[in-house]
Amino acid sequence: MLRIFAMALLALTLAEPGFAMLKPVNLRCEYLKNPLGIDALQPLLSWQLESGTRGARQTAYQIRVKSSPFALDHPAQTLWESGKIASAETGVLYRGSPLIPGTRCQWQVRAWDGNGNPGPWSRTASWEMGLENNQQWGNSKWIGATIDTAYQPAPFFRRTFTLGKNIASARLYICGMGYYELHCNGQRVGDHILDPGYTRYDRRALYVTYDVTKLLRSGDNAIGVILGTGWENVHTRAVWYFDKAPWRAAPKVRAELRVLYTNGVREDITTDKRWKCATGPIVFDSIYGGESYDARLERPGWDTPDYNDDGWQPAIVVGEPGGLISAQAMPPIRATKIIPPVSIKEPKPGVFLFDFGQGLSGHARLTVSGHAGTTIKLRYGERLHPDGTLDTSHIEQHQIKTNPPQQFQTDTYTCKGDSAESWEARFVYHGFQYVEMTGFPGRPTVKNLQAIFTHTDVESVGDFECSNPLLNKIWRNTRWSYLSNLASIPTDCPHREKNGWTGDAHLAAEQGLLNFDGITFYQKWINDLADEQRPTGELPGIVPSSGWGYEWGNGPAWDSAYLLIPWYLYLYCGDTRTLTSHYEGMRRYVDYLTARAQNGIVSIGLGDWVPWKTETPVEVTSTAYYYRDALIVAKAADLLGKPLDAIRYTALAHQIADAFQAKFYRADTHTYANGGQTALSCALYQGLVPEDARAEVLSSLVAAVKSADGHIDTGILGAKYILNTLTDNGRTDVAYRIASQKTQPGWGWWIEQGASTLWESWGGTDSRNHIMFGDISAWFVKALAGINPDPAEPGFRHIFIQPNVVGDLTHASAYYDSVRGRIESRWKLDGDKLTLNVTVPANSTATVRVPTAEPDSVTESGRAQTEWPANGVNRARAEPGALVCEIGSGAYEFQSMWRPGARLAKK
User: Fold this and answer.
1) Peptide bond into 643 cis (omega under 30)
2) Which of the chain's ends, N or C, has fewer CB atoms near its CB within 10 Å?
3) What is the Cα–Cα distance from 515 to 477, expressed in whole angstroms?
4) 798-897 CATH, one of 3.40.50.150, 3.30.565.10, 3.90.380.10, 2.60.420.10
5) Do 805 and 827 form a contact (C-beta atoms < 8 A)?
6) Three-class SS state of 54
């Protein structure tokens, strides 16, 4: 009996708010899971916390880090023992012994809860240091087959070597440009494709680290590398002039294999003149043009030690790219889905049209049986001519006309004559829904061609669903467009350009972060922007750039990606390092705008691109971003402990706001500039409307929407402003009407036309796989499900849960796996009862706004409000249309009375 009583008492104690056995989970180093080859000398170590009780919070942590032993006679060494650190932080910089290249570290963490009780040690996680700088690459050289940039068939490289016994570990570091494929002893190494990530190669190139221990053996071994042209040697002539890029060179590779034996001896195999090279079956590859493969030229066994390479030529040592060699500390590009065709048609004899029913980025996988020399041509596109044949005119338009015409989005395969052959391109990707096949021997079936979806393989961390099927389709299409435009840089489209347009990128960044774990992806691309910034502060409209985009295609509405994306990383992830490490570049950019401003007004660059009807003056949007950028620099200065800079740029922002108000505000009509949706929502969204005028300007915006019959009338900038502005100012009902329109213009009209991705323009005459209108997906999460970050407590240390019950919606739900754990908000309307389920991760708090016309009616898990203080709901206050509750971590269920037909909006 005494034992039963003790167990019951323990159960009651554990159920009390604030008491929790905190368990650290999902350990990351530099936001990556057990990464190999990182450069950061003080890497960021982070974790999440699990707890079965409400109100769980961390009051202290302890970290221990040991070097990983490679043999029993080489024991692990303690690198860092933090001791107990009083802190609620779940992301801290390593502060142990100096880390040298190749050091493998194993680490654990434990946390103390609100009652001072220590939780269990986490499972062990790891990371491994790479080669911190160019000097640590030892004796390896850059090698190639030629220095001639005129197209050559893809070079194959190989090197044989002999290893001793008792191999403890082996790491292969490689940077192969433009793209490479790595082989070892007859096997392809890893599952990355289109490696390394695209950068401005003369300023930064990325290397990848592979653990090849299990692929090596005592005795004879072989390493093989195939190189593609990629962005290193673009020979397709187009208006962006990548064929004249300052980094342009023939493909080359630098690699270093470090083998460690159990006795502590290290042996290195490096790229040098001892490597041999030859050509093979890849007779053509081009990032825009496609790939041609002649299977008759294959070299079976070329990547094995027993292969006879007497006919191969010695590799040559070539010049270095000229910049940094940095670790590729982000997810690689991978093939993530195999998609079968939904139909095959023959619009002309021998011309077969495969429809995959989905716009995507990637390539096709061909399976064929044919006589040797039979050549099958695959052309990729997203539209059809009226006769059912492929139409690529709208995506070929920026290629320079040549005679003969340049190859574009076309792969060819020449059979070697085996009974069954399977092939897919290695060094290109295309944007397509349709593939037109010619030259196929016989009539193909769905088994002969599949679509392979390829993109930077970011982990999915969010989802949304509601009772309106149209919005669910828009959500889905946004995800497809976002991933289709993730190819180690954020692109505009996967076919016509493949360019890193800065405006497209920052407009889609919030929805990207709410859908996918893109922290390291964006950190990498912000480095790319820094590499392109001129000493004067200027930035190009596309990044990387051959030099194009400084004179046209840029301006504050685009360039502000360099400031806005670090700000979003701070807001959503609590990441201060990107914001502060690029402080000087951001400050230099704002100073550049100040030098170009006339009386505080900036009128340079692109504006509200592809508007429906109303064109907004460029100076409105450019000046507004100038204001926003000044505020971001002021915030970064504050984080860096630069108070004078913080004061200076805050004062500059106020001056810009005053100039904006004086220039554009029309007091008699309560409008800005031309009174269009973009101008009005821009002023409100960017915080440029004085408080005493906000209500009147909001009324003008609502009237502008009404005059457009509830439709949107903006370009890509206004499309981000308007939905957020209406919600932030209590008119989610108007925003919902815009978002749910099925007639033109609008996202729903695209769906009605059969869209499976987002399009480039409201009229649908341009590209059909763009992401620049994609912020609506973030609006779904923030406005309808109600999950919002708190700028005062970034990284979701504190969360605003503010769902909006609007229109014909009867339910909406979303989850977001934040850096601190899963956040969830689900609401459902059932007659006169509204149920709201909320999940807050351990070590976070939330303010929940429960929609209701009767605040006293709200219950939580069936409990009346008088019982809440003892159950994790700390405070509650009534506001018009809601009961606002302050809660700790845990799962909650609120129920409230609802008056059907009432419009309840966020304050």
Assistant:
1) no
2) N
3) 12
4) 2.60.420.10
5) yes
6) coil
Does CATH number 1.50.10.10 belong to domain 462-785? yes
pLDDT at 64: 97
Decide if 896 contacts 858 (C-beta within 8 A).
yes
The 10 Å Cβ neighbour count of residue 267 is: 15
Catalytic one of 538, 760, 824, 860: 760
For the chain, the domains span 2-128, 134-330, 335-456, 462-785, 798-897
Kindly tell me if the per-residue pLDDT of 726 is higher than 60: yes
**Residue range 11-38, pLDDT digits in tens:** 333 333 444 589 999 999 999 999 999 9
Helices (H), 609-664: 618-639, 643-664
| Position 138 confidence tier, pLDDT thresholds 50, 70, 90 | confident
Question: Average pLDDT for residues 615-627, to the nearest whole number?
Answer: 98
Q: Is pLDDT at 5 greater than 70 in this prediction? A: no
Mapped onto helix, strand or coil, the DSSP state of residue 587 is helix
497 catalytic? Reply is yes
Tell me the sheet residues that pair with 284: 292
**Is the N-terminal amide bond of 196 cis, ω within 30° of 0?**
yes
The CB density around residue 651, as the number of other CB atoms within 10 Å, is: 12
Annotate 718-765 with DSSP letters as a single string. HHHHHHHHHHHTT-HHHHHHHHT--SSSSHHHHHHTT-SS--SSTT--
CATH fold of the domain at 134-330: Jelly Rolls (2.60.120)
Instruction: Please report the DSSP string for 113-149 in residue order.
Output: -TTS-B-PPPPPEEEEB---SGGGGTT---EES-S--
**Which residue in 497, 510, 532, 860 is the catalytic one?**
497
Question: Residue 444 above 60 pLDDT?
Answer: yes
- The CATH code of domain 2-128 reads 2.60.40.10
pLDDT tens-digit readout, 471-510: 999 999 999 999 999 999 999 999 999 999 999 999 999 9
Answer yes or no: are the C-beta atoms of 264 and 169 closer than 8 Å. Answer: no
Q: Which residues of 580-612 are buried (b: 16+ CB within 10 A; e: fewer)?
A: bbbbebbbbbbebbbebbeebbbbbbbbbbbbb
Per-residue pLDDT reduced to its tens digit, 334-377: 999 999 999 999 999 999 999 999 999 999 999 999 999 999 99
Which strand (E) or helix (H) includes residue 799? strand 798-801
Residue whose structure tokens are 């492929």: 390
Return mean pLDDT, the chain: 94
Going 88 to 330 to 479 to 393, the CA torsion angle's sign is positive
In CATH terms, are 2-128 and 462-785 the same topology? no
pTM above 0.70, yes or no: yes
User: Percent of the chain at pLDDT above 90?
Assistant: 93
Q: How far apart are CA 360 and CA 494, in angstroms?
A: 8
Q: Mark whether 584 is an active-site residue.
A: no
Cα–Cα nearest to 259, from 235, 225, 302, 223: 223
C-alpha to C-alpha distance for 481 and 477, rounded to whole angstroms: 6
Cβ 703 vs Cβ 675: under 8 Å: no
- Name the phi and psi angles at 590, rounded to 5: -65, -40
**Class level of CATH domain 335-456:** mainly beta
